[in-house]
Specification:
Elements (H helix, E strand, L loop, with lengths): L1 E18 L13 H6 L9 E10 L2 E8 L6 E4 L5 E13 L7 E8 L2
Antiparallel strand pairs: 1-4, 1-5, 1-6, 2-3, 2-5
Length: 112
């Protein structure tokens, strides 16, 4: 679980989360069966499987966004309308194989 406390309440229009997907392995876009056989099949073992992002304002939940069976390295949360919050909670459970999930970065964007 990761908790972010903002200095003041903000109208957040986008939250970006960058997850570990093991970029050290080489992937090549190819139709060659020989090339495809050398690459690992399926979703990277390091990728976080389930995410829940909760936006809070003065301790009360104002928006929840869940991602189940996630397969993306770059997760974007764009609410239909901007969410006013002073705290963001990111909870994650499980990966596709590795015991230690990693988040490389989180960015929250507010309306200018």
């Amino acid at each position: 679980m990761i908790r972010f406390s903002l200095e003041k309440e903000e109208k957040i229009h986008e939250l970006q989360i960058l997850l570990d997907s093991n970029l050290s392995r080489q992937l090549t876009i190819s139709l060659s069966e020989i090339q495809l056989r050398t690459e690992p099949a399926g979703t990277p073992l390091e990728l976080i499987r389930n995410l829940c992002c909760t936006f809070l304002l003065k301790g009360k939940i104002v928006h929840i966004q869940k991602f189940e069976e996630n397969y993306l390295r770059f997760v974007r949360i764009i609410p239909e309308t901007p969410v006013t919050a002073d705290e963001i909670l990111i909870e994650f459970s499980g990966t596709y194989g590795t015991p230690t999930p990693k988040i490389f970065g989180v960015r929250a964007y507010r309306n200018a």
